[in-house]
């Protein structure tokens, strides 16, 4: 499966943007539904985030603690230009697949 932000829907992007604020903390599914797309969306459909979260988990972008709490999947270290950088796992796979070489040592992942 090709994982990229182009493949994500609006709901998935809302959830990723929200979870990105707290990468180390697991956040409850109810809180994600309440905060990610605004309170109006939550009032209209309190369970709107369920399908989007399960799609993100299938793509490997979000992980769960098993108790209806979620967070962005942890970043993995990558050595680039002799320096350690951190990159999201799906971006690392894309870069390795295309065997990209970056000449700028200050490139930020």
Could you please describe the fold and organization of this structure?
The protein has 109 residues and is α+β, with helices and mostly antiparallel strands. The chain has a domain at 10-72: Orthogonal Bundle (Arc Repressor Mutant, subunit A). The chain has 5 helices and 5 strands. The chain has a 3-stranded antiparallel β-sheet. The protein is elongated, with a radius of gyration of 16 Å.
Secondary structure: elements and pairs:
Blueprint: H1 10-19, E1 27-28, H2 29-35, H3 39-44, H4 49-59, E2 62-64, E3 69-72, E4 76-80, E5 83-87, H5 89-98
Antiparallel strand pairs: 1-3, 2-3, 4-5
Keywords:
single chain, 109 residues, alpha+beta, Arc Repressor Mutant, subunit A, 3-stranded antiparallel β-sheet, two-stranded antiparallel ribbon, 40% helix, 17% strand
In short:
The chain is an alpha+beta fold. The protein has helices at residues 10-19, 29-35, 39-44, 49-59, 89-98; strands at residues 27-28, 62-64, 69-72, 76-80, 83-87.
Please give the CATH architecture of the domain at 10-72.
Answer: Orthogonal Bundle
Which residue ranges are poorly predicted, with pLDDT under 50 across at least 5 consecutive positions? none
Question: How many DSSP H or I helices?
Answer: 5
Largest sheet: 3 strands, antiparallel
Series of H and E elements:
HEHHHEEEEH
* Amino-to-carboxy terminus distance: 22 Å
